[in-house]
Amino acid sequence: MLAAYHALYGAARALFESERNFWVVAISLAHGVTLLSTSACFLALDRFPSMDKYRLQDKRAPEALFRQAFRGLFFNSAVTYPVFALLLYPIAKGFVAVSGAAPSASETAAHLLGCILVEDCLFYWIHRTLHHKSIYKYVHKTHHEFKQNVAPAAEHFHPAEDVMNVIPFLAGPLLFNVHFATLLLWVVVRVHEIVDAHSGYGLPWSPWSYTRPSERHEFHHSHNQGCYGSFFPFWDWAFSTDAQFRAFMAKGAWRTRGAAAPAKARPTPNKDGSLPTPRRNPPRAAKKAQ
Ligand SMILES: [Zn+2]
Ligand SMILES: [Zn+2]
């Protein structure tokens, strides 16, 4: 499979005289196709009531916010990332081989794992810093407009955060001098993971389900407390920034991984022993009066 991918990469490279143009087009396509196709798959799940059991929160994000982020997917794919790729090429070309022999399977796997580990560490610290009360409102608050995640939230950022996100993403490839064919796989891996984490679903067959980033990140958005990591829970565990998340999950508050919904409290019977008529909407006035 990797050999077929490298053959495709070689054929695509041969289409471009300019290495820079190939760099820009290939990154833009890897990012845009992964972002739009993964988001479309998750949004399609909303059409199937049978998938509701995998949704982490019942409440949906406001429609206007959803539409704004949805448009952002196309803008990022068509403008933001191609511009980033163009601006970063002069820096990256000294570290990343665009032409030449393709790497072996073991080298590709080692480089991808290295990129994930470097990103996971840098993302945790940058993200945690962005939550510092002295700077949160200037940049990261934009991303937290989503209290309930949905796939387009994955790239709903303040422009300054878009730029900052390049650091954890590109640090691994530059550090390990990965081949450009591997860097493109890394784009696919990273974009898929971040869309999955913002999908609002906890799918048992997700490739990331073992480390449960979607549940951690859903809690991060709904409670705005801890869970700053991306791929792995290690840094949150090591610095106890997932304590509230673990306490929350211990209560079984979410129907995660398709588990049965928690049993609802039995209604108090009327004086004559009959059960009260269920109300579709919570009594808001009574709630306010408390
Ligand atoms: Zn955050
Ligand atoms: Zn997020």
UniProtKB/TrEMBL annotation:
Residues annotated as domain Fatty acid hydroxylase: 113-241
Annotated compartments: Membrane
InterPro entries, A to Z: Fatty_acid_hydroxylase, Sterol_Desaturase_Related
Transmembrane regions listed in the UniProt entry: 22-45, 69-89, 166-189
Region listing for Disordered, in residue ranges: 258-290
Biased composition annotated in UniProt, kind: Basic residues: 281-290
Top-level division of the source organism's lineage: Eukaryota
Keyword Ribonucleoprotein attached: no
Chief location category: membrane
UniProt KW keywords: Membrane, Transmembrane, Transmembrane helix
UniProt-listed Pfam families: FA_hydroxylase
Protein name, UniProt field: C-4 methylsterol oxidase
